[in-house]
Design goal:
alpha+beta, Helix Hairpins, Heat Shock Protein 90, 3 domains, five-stranded mixed β-sheet, three-stranded antiparallel β-sheet
Length: 472
């Protein structure tokens, strides 16, 4: 239940992807990036706001230092020569970001910065327009467009009670809101795209794993995903490699079960037939019992071979490795099998170049090389010999070769020699189970060695075994 709850929610939707199809990992990544972007935007906004406040304070300091009279005179000249645009340039040079610290009123008593004037101020403006001479805190200016303005210096406390540029402020608010919406939507789209890019390959891998677990052993990640040059691409490539290995292992296991059942069925069938004949022909009981014992021994040998193969395939080693004189081990084996070779009118020839020591298990190595010698004696013709060689390579490996003078093996079947129950040549006479070379290969692999089969140009088959030499 816990494992099922930990899976991503994948819900198929023909018309599109719904929210659940994105999975919890998507939302974690999405909200993580989105909150990060919002936090960054807020930080930038606060920094900009503080910077604007600093500039406003600098503008206020400038006003205090330069004096109201100077500012009034400069503003009048700017408005008269360049109009409102020139006035804005002047205010920017003074680092005044908001409305100026004075009123600029046209003949309709409308303030240039859209600051609404109290009624009593408007009445006073009407009287001022009619005065021919103005006091020092007032200026009458005509802009290049021909419109006249009154520049009125009023106490700063009075200005603070006026709404600040309602028209421009409303326009600025709209722009701020638009920017906020653009930032919000952009951050959402960016976070969703990034989360989708990361989680989409994960969801695809989940679907493939689910299909593989349900029995579709040929399920693989697409080439589009395996071609990615990032960790997700590595993950898909590793899955495909793992799936191929498991599929091959399962196929080999199924093939092995089939071969085992076939090998066991044959002796059992013969035992059943022998039992039936004993009842029909009591006078042949002795010979039939001998035959039954042979079949039982054959079954026992088969079970032992299968057990050995299984144990070696799992990496089980009967005893710890010790230092072994491989030349002496092979010499003892050859003396043991020399009598059998002579009985078959064959000969074992051993040509060691030097004594070599390796780390290994003597029992496993004796059985492995014994299988190779027996196999070579089985297929080399009468009157010929089996050559056993031992040499040391330049890359600190010992090479043992077992060469017969038999018919060899078709080149396309050389790799199959070490597969369990393969009997490409021995099937002619029905000897053996086809497990000897498979057991031998597993034994050599446990010693970090390799085996290779090759046909000789002069005829015969050579099995080459390469094992690392002990460094002690």
């Amino acid at each position: 239940m816990v494992a099922r709850q930990s899976k991503l929610f994948v819900v198929a939707d023909i018309n599109g992807l719904n929210l659940r199809s994105m999975g919890r990992l998507f939302w974690k990544i999405f909200f993580g990036f989105w909150i990060t972007l919002i936090a960054i935007a807020l930080g930038v906004g606060i920094t900009v706001h503080w910077n604007a406040q600093e500039k406003a304070e600098e503008g206020a300091d400038f006003i205090n230092k330069q004096g109201i009279g100077f500012m009034l005179h400069a503003a009048s000249n700017a408005l008269q020569q360049g109009g409102e645009q020139q006035l804005q340039v002047l205010l920017s040079e003074w680092q005044i970001t908001g409305p100026p610290p004075f009123l600029i009123v046209n003949e309709q008593n409308q303030e240039l910065y859209r600051r609404p004037l109290p009624r009593r101020w408007r009445h006073r403006m009407d009287r001022i327009w009619q005065q021919p001479n103005l006091p020092p805190h007032l200026r009458r200016v005509r802009s290049p467009s021909g419109e006249q303005y009154l520049i009125v210096m009023v106490p700063r406390a009075a200005l603070t009670h006026l709404p600040q540029r309602q028209f421009h402020w409303s326009h600025g608010t709209d722009r701020v809101r638009l920017r906020l919406w653009i930032t919000l939507v952009g951050s959402i789209l960016f976070s969703a795209a990034l989360a989708w890019t990361i989680t989409s390959p994960v969801r695809e891998l989940q679907k493939t794993v689910k299909a593989f677990a349900s029995g579709e052993l040929n399920a693989r990640s697409s080439k589009k995903l395996t071609k990615r040059r990032d960790e997700l691409g590595d993950l898909h490539r590793e899955f495909n490699s793992m799936a191929s290995s498991i599929q091959q292992l399962m196929e080999t296991q199924n093939h092995l079960f089939h071969d085992v059942s076939h090998e066991i069925r044959s002796p059992l069938t013969r035992l059943s037939v022998a039992l039936g004949l004993i009842g029909q022909s009591p006078n042949k009981q002795g010979s039939l019992l001998v035959r039954m014992q042979q079949e039982i021994d054959r079954l026992d040998e088969l079970v032992e071979e299968i057990f050995s193969l299984s144990r070696l395939s799992s990496g089980m080693v009967p005893s710890p490795f010790v230092s072994i004189d491989l030349a002496a081990l092979l010499e003892d084996l050859i003396q043991e099998y020399q009598f059998d070779a002579q009985q078959m009118d064959k000969q074992l020839v051993y040509r060691p170049q030097q004594s070599v020591r390796i780390e290994g298990d003597a029992i496993l190595l004796q059985r492995a090389f014994g299988n190779l010698i027996q196999n070579a004696l089985r297929y080399t013709p009468k009157g010929s010999s089996v050559q056993i060689g031992l040499e040391k390579s330049a890359d600190e490996q010992v090479i043992v070769t077992v060469t017969d003078e038999g018919p060899g093996v078709p080149d396309e079947e050389l790799d199959a020699l070490f597969q369990p129950f393969y009997r490409g040549r021995s099937s002619k006479d029905g000897e053996g189970f086809g497990l000897g070379l498979a057991v031998t290969q597993r034994s050599i692999q446990i010693h970090n060695g390799l085996m290779k089969a090759e046909n000789m140009s002069s005829g015969g088959l050579r099995i080459k075994v390469m094992i690392p030499i002990s460094k002690t």
